[in-house]
Amino acid sequence: MTVRFGTFDAETWWRPDDLAELPSVGGHDPAVDSMDELLLGFCAPNDLLITRYPIHPDLLDPRIRHISVDDPGPGPIERYISPELVRDEPVAPYAILPDTSRLLGASVPPSEVVALVNSKTWSNELVIELGLPGAGRVVRSTDELVEAVTALDFRALVKDPYGVSGRALLEITTPGVLRAVERVLRKSNLRVELLVQEKLPKQHDFSGHLHLRQDGTAEFLGLQQMTNKGFRHLGSHRPPPALVDEGWYADSLAGVTDALTKAGYWGPVGVDAMILPDGTVVPVLEINARQSLGLLTLHLEQRTDLTAHLWQLELNIAPGKGITDVLTAFDGLLSTGDRPGVQVLNGSTLAAPGGRVYLAIFCRPDDLGQWQRHSVAAVGSAGLTLRGMTTDAA
Question: Could you confirm whether the keyword Aminoacyl-tRNA synthetase appears in this record (predicted)?
Fold first, then answer.
């Protein structure tokens, strides 16, 4: 048995309080608090899943034990988990936060180490040290930011060191946008630490996933090709063999695993990468020293001989409707495990005006578009509407 739990906006709790924020940083998204139910996808029979909120019974596998915490307040779920629930049991948290370290002690890496290696500042310094393509420049003042963006002739991406999935990332293409960012940073009077990268002509996004053991040895788990809308993650799936040689890519991460081990980290690792139109592989864009949605897709695929595709729908929800209506919409399309179909992975707290629902689509690789169209038609026939989504392959 393994105990699973976690906080999906881990980057918020790694980010130092004294850092200035980019204008694109929004407020807290309440939907993120309930994304921990996606950890069901990692669970094996007899595992215990602890979530912030109750999970709708129709989403639960009866072979998996589940409890939700009592009266959760603000902050990470780890603050509200009883130590008795995790005592003497293997534990697989989504990410290591300060509250995770207090709960689990020396059985997990120190939270300050985890925060360090998840920083884009740390991963960029490693890219430079290893001589890899795609390195950016870390700027530590507003004047340095202006200089770096101008030197790139306004083909610049500016990233918060703890931004995730397009949050806290700005594309600065004009002097006017740069002046607006400059005003916000100077007004804040807070410490500046940002990564400035040239916006490269990306052809494909992908990620490599591995498990790093405490002795420094690593098990490479596989690749995932990602579909993004702008800079926002929409889904992932197994890439075609021609995209990148998996063995070569696994070998190319030796310097990354060595550096993580030297820093004192062990556990799940996801490395975001990309391929340029000329075939150049940028092997390390950033490092996620935690579990991830790409890793979730790999776990889902272990259950079937089909290909697992993680796909996200953003739905408008009318008052009085919720996850029951979504499940009803997919009646007849739901996966049986051995035949193609759809599994709804989350949505217990779905309510008006709407929110995100993640689907696992199990099918042959060439049939993904067909199953996505079936899914869109199904939610439409149930009176649910999509919010700015497309049926592009994920």
Answer: no
Per-residue pLDDT reduced to its tens digit, 230-268: 666 788 999 999 999 999 999 999 999 999 999 999 999
Domain ranges of the chain: 3-108, 135-198, 201-296, 303-386
User: How far, in Å, CA of 310 to CA of 290, rounded?
Assistant: 18
The C-alpha atoms of residue 137 and residue 282 are separated, in whole angstroms, by: 16
Global pTM value? 0.93
* Options 2.60.260.20, 3.30.470.20, 3.30.70.100, 3.40.1670.10; CATH of 201-296: 3.30.470.20
CA–CA gap between residue 216 and residue 268 (Å, rounded): 12
How would CATH label the architecture of 303-386?
Answer: 2-Layer Sandwich (3.30)
pLDDT the model gives residue 166: 59
DSSP secondary structure, 201-242, as one string: ---EEEEEEEEE-TTS-EEEEEEEEEEEETTEEEEEEPPPTT
| C-beta separation of 198 from 155 below 8 A | yes
Q: How confident is the model at residue 234, as a pLDDT?
A: 81
Q: How many CA atoms lie within 13 A of 51 on its CB side?
A: 24
